[in-house]
Task: structure prediction
Amino acid sequence: MFEYWSFFILTFAGFVGLGLIIYLLGSRKARAEERKYETYTCGEPFPRVNVGPDNLYQAIKKNLGIEDIQKIHTGKLSDYLLWMLAGFVVVLLMVMML
Amino acid sequence: MLEYLITILIVSAFLMLAVRRDFIAIAAILLSFFMILALFFQSQIIVVRYGGWTPPFGIVWEVDKLNAFIGLIIAGMASLVTIYSIKCIKERRHRFYTLLCLMTTGLLGVCLTGDIFNMYVFFEILSISSYGLVAFFLDKNAIEGAFKYLVMGSLGSSLLLLGIAILYGLTGTLNFADLALKVSHSREFMIALGLIIGGFCLKAAIVPFHMWKPDAIEGTPIPMGALFSTATAALGVYGILRLLFVFGMLQLNLMLIILGTITMLAGALLALVQINVKRMLAYSGISQVGYVVMAIGFGTSAGFAAGLYHILNNALIKGLLFMAIGCVIYITGKENLDEMGIRNRTLLVCTGIGVLSMAGVPPLNGFVSKWLIFMASWEISPLLTVLAITASAITLAYGLKIFSSLFFAQKRAEGKIPTTMLVPVIILTILCVIIGVFPQLGLAVVEPAVNALLNQNQYITAALGGG
Result:
């Protein structure tokens, strides 16, 4: 019905191919990475940094305006009700416009 | 058989309180699943008229392929949750199972009834049992989540009731089929329809009606999170679909596309920045419902097929992830991602498959329905396709956040996971892989539902005694 196999095989082959290329490039660059550590840390031993889930995607959070969306979710019931009411008004208006 | 389905569940709920034996609830919910399965394979529309009264005077129950499909998802998920909860819920299990039986009653009742007021009654049974289940742990988070859900849910139910009252005032009937024949698209009808759709938007947690969901899921036992994100969400979408098709209001597709797109993106972005894993999965569930609503909004048969397929896949994936994460919480006792490190190969494989499937990576089931959504959206607007792909990329990002936090943490806990908790996780993982590799199996279930959706005349004729 949706010609599944054609796009399935193509996408699957694409993913496998991409994975293979990344793997090959990754294994070739192993030595270059060691040099990068030295340059980056000015010769000092590279410290092990464990990025916690709190810090992961911080840049995205700041740059994509997610903080603004989060601000709407205040945790206060009155604010939730206000948004819900706004939603009802929007739905009603859209239905009434037909 | 249909008339006994709800009776068995309600009687089991009250028996559970008196006898306090888990097997009663487990047997009742499993039995309901097999009954729905049998109904799904019936070739004709099944109509049960209570007391032999014909519409519009009596209450009618009606099962076509569409509500049998949704009922199958609901009963299937409820069955897995029931098995999962045997060891997961450690105390006051008889109360938990009583509420679970009532919630399943409400979910299946809303799904299978052909009477709009009867639908409201089951909607309330579902809501009240849900409030109890959210408050089950009786701690601060649970009470707060339950209270917020109670207030918002009650407001939603009230508006739903108001909409039904207006419809009854306009037509003098409450039967779906009879309403479809008698209703005229007047301004009063539009107000009623808007109120009822708003009520279902709340259950489906469509933005901006979604705010109860993360708070409720954070407080509720993890098996209930699975049920909220799969069965309740599917039911909300079903309610909207049934109303739009029965009343011939497909012109509302633009509203669905707008709401669906906002829900899809906002849910994904908010999931990305969560630390509490239950809240993250709750937002993820909201985002996936957005995909479904957007696809349905396309108003094409490809869009309906994609949307309904994604309801099925979302149920499998979200059920899998909630239950797999529940196993981690069972061992670690923590819900924050930075404290949830675990060493367990079975969970690593299952969670990995769940995360990849949720993001739409082939050859898993999430890919199939997302691809169908992308294809259907391309016909409407390439911009929608781009937005859907963007949301998928964000899904992969927060999915990997879950995966890395659990299995690549510095401190990783070890422990034995009960078999009754692992079995549902493994079943769902296998289903995700099988449907991904053999998508025709999923289509075989979805296609009859799409056909039923597009042939509402059969539904109306059967209810009124013509088929």
